[in-house]
Structure formats: C-alpha cells, structure tokens
Amino acid sequence: MNPFATHAGPRRVESHMSPVPTADDLENGVSAIAGHFLETFHAEHRALRDLLLALIDAFGKGESSRARRLVAAVSALTGPHFRYEEEALYPGLVPIFGPGYVEKLLADHDDTIRNVRELTELADLALRNDLEEIDDDQAAWGIELTRELLPHLSDCDGLSIMVETLPEDDVVHLLATRDVVMETNLDLLTWAATVRGRHV
Prior knowledge:
Layout: H1 23-26, H2 29-60, H3 64-97, H4 99-128, H5 136-147, H6 150-157, H7 160-163, H8 168-184, H9 188-194
C-alpha cells in the first residue's frame, strides 16, 4: 500500500477536545467561580500595566515627584497580588506545569522585588537631593528597570487559561487567600522584608 496515496474523500478526524462552555456553564459551578477570580486577576494586571507605562512616561519626562508616587503605587498593588499568587495560585499550578516553571515564576517575583527596591531608591534620590527633575542617566535607568517588569506581567496574565482548569476547591481557596492578604494589605517591599519566606 502506498503511504502517500490520497484518499477518495476527506478523512474524518475525531476530536477529543471538550466542548466550549456555554453561558449556562459559566453561570454554574467552578466556571462561575473561576470567572469571578479571573475578572479580578485581569483587572489587577491591567492596573499594574497602566502604572508601569505611566512610570516609564514619568521617568522619560524627568518628573521625580510623579515617579515617586507611581513607584509607591506599584509596590502597593504588587504586594497583595504577589502574595496570593505565591501562597495559593502557584502551588495549584505545580501539577500542571511541574515545579520548574513555577520556580521561574517565583524567580520573576524575586527580580521584581529587586527592581522595585531599586526604583524606590532612585525615586527617593531626587527627593533627598531636593530635585524636581531626574537627570538623563537616572531616567534611562528607571525606564530600563520598569520595562524589565513588563514581560512577567504579560506572562502571568496568560496563566488565566490554566486557572480555568483548577478544581473548584482550589479556586475557592485562591479567592479566600486573596481576601485575607487584601485585608493585611502589605506593600511589596514590606511583604518581602517581613512575611515572605523567600528572601532576596
């Protein structure tokens, strides 16, 4: 038999994909719970995106006061967000991705903490020197540090399609953990220096 011979008609390919969820599916059970979490997850990522882009703009214009406010806002937002990711989301992703990729996500958080720490020092430098504008070298360094945060942001938002596959109990735990850390509301650098077990 010629393996390259064509068939007389189109060959039927059996699909093993699950059907696309309907609106009724999304209103019930884990899909509704996951949808509630993902709406919040995306909103936090969009807010962080906007802060980082505004921070790049502030450094580009040499606006020290604005940069300092934006760095503080980035730290305030990422503190609770990173905490519930590390305490509840990432452990639930180990069975899907394996420990290697989850370790990469944690290492990305390490890098973000270092960058935000350095951005804070950079923004405070102008304040200590009583300068209203950041010089060109400082501005370029601030922009570079900020841009380094963007890839993890987009990668992390992509995790949402995996959250949809988590068991209902895992998503409930994720939401409950988020509620707790939002009440504590530690900024990134305070959390990293006190509560976080992984020190950088």
